[in-house]
């Protein structure tokens, strides 16, 4: 390195970094591609006027989220088979979720749940499904309307219990009553429940 020529004139006033930049720029202009490591300028601990300081902040916010209600179906022998009836309407609930959000330069960097509280409990929907056997169209003794307004076959004699019969009366007829009260009242009372 002792035999290296010393720069003269205006070149002597340039730093080593500036000289390297000038040489690389000249070579690039001439179309020479050169991969070299230029000397690095040591970093200083003191921020300069053009350095950017990231803004960071932590915010908390809450949001309301729906809790979907569930649905339950129960069998009901007082309803005609296959029919449904809503016994209790379902209603969605609500919960409040509180988050802690870290924001850097206006951009959300992370989000963490810090609290979760149910503010409105959901209400389950209850649906009744009818299981009562349909009235036979073959009603030998005719039909009658019960207290619920349903058409029921009148009691009649049969060799065995017909489909849908609820009791065998004292006179041997089979009743199709939907309620126990008054069943077989004009047929000698209930001999046995089916």
3D architecture notes:
This protein has 194 residues and is mainly beta. The chain has three domains: 10-39, no CATH class; 56-130, Single Sheet (Resuscitation-promoting factor rpfb fold); 134-194, no CATH class. The chain contains one helix and twelve strands. The protein has one helix at residues 16-29, and strands spanning 56-67, 71-80, 84-88, 93-104, 107-120, 125-132, 143-145, 151-153, 156-157, 167-169, 173-175, 190-193. It has a four-stranded antiparallel β-sheet, with no helix packed on it. A three-stranded antiparallel β-sheet has the order 1-4-5, with no helix packed on it. The N and C termini lie far apart (118 Å).
**Oligomer kind:** single chain
Query: In CATH terms, what is the fold-level topology of the largest domain?
Result: Resuscitation-promoting factor rpfb fold
Total of helices: 1
The overall strand count is 12
CATH class of the largest domain: Mainly Beta
3D shape: rod-shaped
Annotation keywords:
4-stranded antiparallel β-sheet; 3 domains; Resuscitation-promoting factor rpfb fold; 12 strands; mainly beta
Please give a quick description of this structure.
By secondary structure, this protein is mainly beta.
């Amino acid at each position: 390195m002792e035999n290296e020529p010393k720069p003269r004139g205006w070149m002597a006033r340039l730093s080593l970094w500036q000289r390297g930049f000038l040489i690389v720029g000249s070579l690039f202009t001439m179309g020479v591609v050169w991969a070299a490591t230029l000397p690095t300028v040591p970093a200083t601990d003191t921020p300069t006027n053009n350095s950017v300081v990231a803004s960071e902040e932590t915010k908390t916010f809450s949001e309301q989220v729906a809790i979907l209600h569930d649905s339950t179906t129960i069998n009901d022998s007082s309803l005609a088979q296959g029919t449904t009836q809503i016994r209790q309407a379902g209603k969605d609930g609500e919960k409040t979720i509180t988050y802690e959000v870290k924001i850097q330069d206006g951009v959300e960097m992370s989000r963490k749940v810090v609290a979760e509280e149910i503010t409105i409990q959901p209400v389950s929907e209850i649906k009744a499904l009818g299981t009562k056997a349909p009235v036979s169209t073959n009603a030998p003794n005719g039909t009658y309307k019960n207290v619920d307004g349903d058409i029921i076959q009148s009691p009649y004699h049969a060799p065995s219990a017909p489909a849908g019969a609820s009791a065998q009366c004292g006179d041997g007829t089979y009743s199709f009553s939907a309620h126990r009260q008054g069943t077989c009242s004009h047929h000698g009372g209930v001999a046995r429940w089916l």
